[in-house]
Amino acid sequence: MRLEFIGADHEVTGSCHYLEAAGKHMLVDYGMEQGVNVFENAELPVQEAMIDYVFLTHAHVDHSGLLPLLYAKGFRGQVYTTDATADLCSIMLRDCAHIQMMEAEWKNRKAKRSSSVAAVEPLYTMEDAEGVINRIVPCHYDQEIQVCEGVKIRFTDVGHLLGSASIEVWLTEDGRTKKIVFSGDIGNKNQPLLRDPSYTKEADYVVMESTYGDRLHSQERPDYVRELAQILQETFDRGGNVVIPSFAVGRTQEMLYFLRKIKVDKLVQGHDGFQVFVDSPLAVEATGIFQENRWECFDEEALELVRAKINPISFAGLKLSITSEESKAINFDEKPKVILSASGMCDAGRIRHHLKHNLWRPECTILFVGYQSVGTLGRSLIEGAQEVKLFGEPIQVKAKIRQLSGISGHADKNGLIEWISAFEEKPKKVFIVHGEDRVCMTFAECLKMEYGQRAYAPYSGTVFNLLSNEFEYEGQPIPVKKKAKPASGVFARLLAAGQRLMALIGRSDGLANKDMAKFADQINSLCDKWE
Fold this sequence. Notes:
Shape: globular
Distance between the termini: 41 Å
CATH topology of the largest domain: Metallo-beta-lactamase, Chain A
CATH class of the largest domain: Alpha Beta
Structural class: alpha/beta
Helix content: 25-40%
């Protein structure tokens, strides 16, 4: 019975943990790395086709974004997650696949100018996304689920995103049971729309995030509505647009909640009826999913509006842009407006077109409302870049660059401490992950020295034996090196099919002799055909 750390160790993105118990191979999250990553991630300890189950904490791509790749490489197990996360993944993973395919197509068109550049293949395809979506098993909050003999799980609302959860995992092997809790991303308290995080009382081991383990949010709840209204007023008075790079799922819906209140309370003067454009097909679909899951996930303040038959994230003047033609038309409208567009870190999607049209205009405001990873365009703008390159063209940064203070879907240091302190008995070990290198170290030290927790910040590759309570291997920080060129195209599919075949052979031990003989004959016949 062991736990191995794969991704988001001394880094913020690319979450992935591996569990082996009761003869099963399991992952908790399989996320995509975003921005600059400092350290190399360990490889999965088994082939993708050998993975039996994935337990998914929430739909953000740094936790879910490589699930289609897992499928492409032979995974045919089941993905357990909450009802709302299942709904969101059905659109987000398709969107990820679309982005992968479009970027590969764009790079290949560009490469035609240089015959020395090899063709680029997408990381995965729409068929891979569809395939893994069909493996998802939706689960209700707070219900114990027997996954198989020796493995039981339960999802608890952790208030970070619609459907987000911490996951309790009970593993039983040789008559001994251990319980490990994965925090997922712990939500900030007193946020719009979503409930506050719920706590867990018991665990043998805990794996917890530390994104904001070195900072404190304001002790008083910021008045986001007033601050946003002031930014709108000042920008509209100058005749400019407010462009908001916003995560399509979660942050966009929060911003719509604030904007509805600004309009209802008439907090922006002289610009009655100002329009708000949501320019992201993904955000539009996600907003519908928020509505569908409102009774299970909304907090009491939002539910009061729902009971009064008021949609808390819709209002007069809201425009939803789906097609590329609708998106392009937004910047030909000269009236001051709000443009909400993905991605939130400005590293892909339609937001880059809106930045191209608005960054050079001193009357406009670019308003950031979420975390910006190191190495992303959003981080560069916040840190004061005077010029950026978009679509190969240098753009002068003359617009006002602002951040909405205090808004965060992540708990701060105090919120993280409150979550881990809710356990009635201190766990045998608390593993600190999902934070920048220095943050992981300092937060683990804080928990040890000030709160008596047995905290440890593992590097990728660390292996821990859950039965003996001992490390089998302590990973070391390995700086990122240039990646070897992956197998491309159809050959990569062939390799994945071969891995899946080997996984099937590995599972065949114990079948009737005649069935194994028949299987062997079929494989030999196939080999004879191609030799």
